[in-house]
Amino acid sequence: SRSHRIAVIPGDGIGTEVVPEGVRALRAAADAFGIGLDMVEYDFASAAYWQRHGTMLPEGWFDELKDYDALFLGAVGWPDVVPDHVSLWGSLLQFRRRFDQYANVRPVRLMPGVTSPLAGRGPGDIDFYVVRENTEGEYSSIGGRIFEGTERETVVQETVMTRTGVDRILRYAFELARGRERRKLTSATKSNGISQTMPYWDERVAAMAADHPDVAVDQYHIDILTAHFVLHPERFDVVVASNLFGDILSDLGPACAGTIGIAPSANINPERRYPSLFEPVHGSAPDIAGKGIANPVGQIWSASMMLDHLGEPEAAAAVLRAVEEVLAGDRAALTPDLGGSGTTASLGAAVAAAVKGAA
Ligand code: NAD
Ligand code: IPM
Ligand code: MN
């Protein structure tokens, strides 16, 4: 039978609570569809590892991980122990950059059974993708401080946009839009205030649009776009944005669709030269960590996206169907972010059981 090797990296906080539920759904899908999954768990990319070793990752991490078929990550960050920029630049952001996972694909969907905080919205009304540039842009290591400790103290951090980097994420987003019913692409920039990089992005959108006459294109400045996310979420189909703007939109979108606890993401290296990475959109949630009440659906939905990427579309669809079925079922069984009184484990177990039933 087919077999896939997966590195499992729980990370910090609720990452360690939701990853086992993602694994449980994966095992259920693997059993039901006759798929072999070889999952190897790693304790690095966590504050606990940092406390023991003084680094987030072992020296040989790149060679250790590069031959996996996929990486399955929980969340990284425990700011009481390691400053966030140190832990994230020492782990997740290295994975994205070194494995050239330049397309961060984040579906935003109002699911049956989930209530939107926006009035009058039901399932089907919100259904779009945020496609986020994931290797350059505002997340750059170019910059520094001068005149430290004086009144002239100055801090600079450059935004980097390369022709290759911008074109490849736009092409990915246009192709995604082309494959969807509405064939609509929205680009987010801020070309009135940011005078070099953002107009450049707009230029490349125009060039890419000329190559994709079948895709309807519009663009907004990021400020008003956030307002439209709240006021008119039904307008959007594929939203493409720079690294920072895509980060912001991919928390706002899921909040409009009920909870960030269910939002998944795929950090894709489309050329498949390196493993892609699958993780929920949310973080380690220190405020609820250790309580057993984190919503595991973002992790489980990410598992579905991973199965799809691994060439297992039936298993991927079964996991997503199971999620939909459980979300639409008894409200009390859901986690508190969805108004229920269930736990991470009880919700995860319900989804895994539904996966078995769906096969
Ligand atoms: P967060 O996403 O961890 O939490 C934001 C809020 O949403 C919190 O109130 C939290 O309780 C809630 N929440 C998040 N996930 C939930 C879930 N599955 N179920 C129920 N409620 C959920 O964002 P934050 O507080 O800004 O960040 C906390 C830490 O996580 C920081 O160290 C940050 O850098 C890190 N972080 C990591 C990732 C990642 O690894 N991909 C993503 C975002 C934040
Ligand atoms: C995300 C997170 C990360 C990001 C942080 C933790 C560096 O917010 O995956 O959305 O900004 O990309
Ligand atoms: Mn984010």
UniProtKB/TrEMBL annotation:
SMART domains: Iso_dh. It holds the Pfam family Iso_dh. Its cofactor is Mg(2+); Mn(2+). It catalyses: (R)-malate + NAD(+) = pyruvate + CO2 + NADH. Its EC number is 1.1.1.83. The keyword Oxidoreductase applies. InterPro entries: ICDH/IPMDH, IsoCit/isopropylmalate_DH_CS, IsoPropMal-DH-like_dom, TTC_DH. Keywords: Manganese, Metal-binding, NAD, Oxidoreductase. It comes from the Bacteria. The keyword NAD applies. GO terms for molecular function: tartrate dehydrogenase activity. SUPFAM superfamilies: Isocitrate/Isopropylmalate dehydrogenase-like. Coiled coil: none annotated. Residues 5-351 form the Isopropylmalate dehydrogenase-like domain. PANTHER family: D-MALATE DEHYDROGENASE [DECARBOXYLATING]. NCBIfam families: TTC. Belongs to the isocitrate and isopropylmalate dehydrogenases family. This is D-malate dehydrogenase (decarboxylating). It comes from Nocardiopsis endophytica.
